[in-house]
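Write out the 3D structure for:
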Amino acid sequence: QSFTYAIEVRQMPSTCTLPILSYAAQGAGAGDGRFFERLVLSDTGINNNVETFLAETLTAPNLKELTLHKTQMTGSLSNVDFTRFPLLRKLTISHNPSMTSSTLNPSICALEHLEHLDLSNAQIDHDGFDWSGCTKLRHVDLRDNPLLRGDWATLVQHRIEDLWLDNTAMRGTMPNFERLRSIGVNTNEMQGAVRLPASVSSVAFFGNGATRAPIWCEGGWGEEACVAPSNNLTSIRLEHSYLGGDVHTALGGVSTKLTSLYLRDTEFRGDLGTLLTTFPNLRELTLIGNLFHGDVARSLRGLETLDIQELGVVDSDAPSAASHRLMAP
């Protein structure tokens, strides 16, 4: 008979220090299948030093998932040797406010099975990390590390499906991620175009230093921004991107499956009314900070699924041809 051991501690606010955790192969022989494979510490007052914890306190060579999220752990990740856990598939160390600034340890990319990496809000201070060895990563969340710098072209791995680089200092132009499903690149130093393969279902792009950066159009580069047609695209966030251009050029080929559309401060122009009729499943809509014309109100009345809408104020000086300036209230 085979057993899998796991420890999961959640929502335990009391401050404490974990004792030694040592779960390797046990019993009559190393092949009896009893292994410690999963450790989740989330929303807890556990206050071990993270470097000591991962180097000495925790011994689990068969660990496949490690989560340290919203703990009171102290110390830095800079010198942690993650190869002590060679079978790791999912690694999450995020939102631990007592940890100090860390560099990225190269041992992360020595984990041959690692698919899910979440180091969001982990106080990472690093420039030019070499991601070339992380060939199996599928989910990468590095958001809210404003001192994380480097050219994100080094993240090109054909397996990446979800990529979140919001509020980092990653720079350069976006490489081609062939399997991408969702992407967030808000508030960083990226430049140039955002290429969206047909596989993408969710995109977030706003508040970047490179204003009016065009978005990749299927078939080639366009003069104005546009979103590549996709049968899977259900959510678009282009807030504060100031992309400009005609809204039909930008969104005319987007899937009718779209449920969320956030266009605050994109400075799009054109006939929004006719465009909205092509999204019968729309549930969330934000339009503030654009210059549209057309009968927007009539189109909205036809959207029976719409739950949340933030439209702003129609300009009282708009001409009779129904040109609307949508502004923040």
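The two ends are 65 Å apart (CA to CA).
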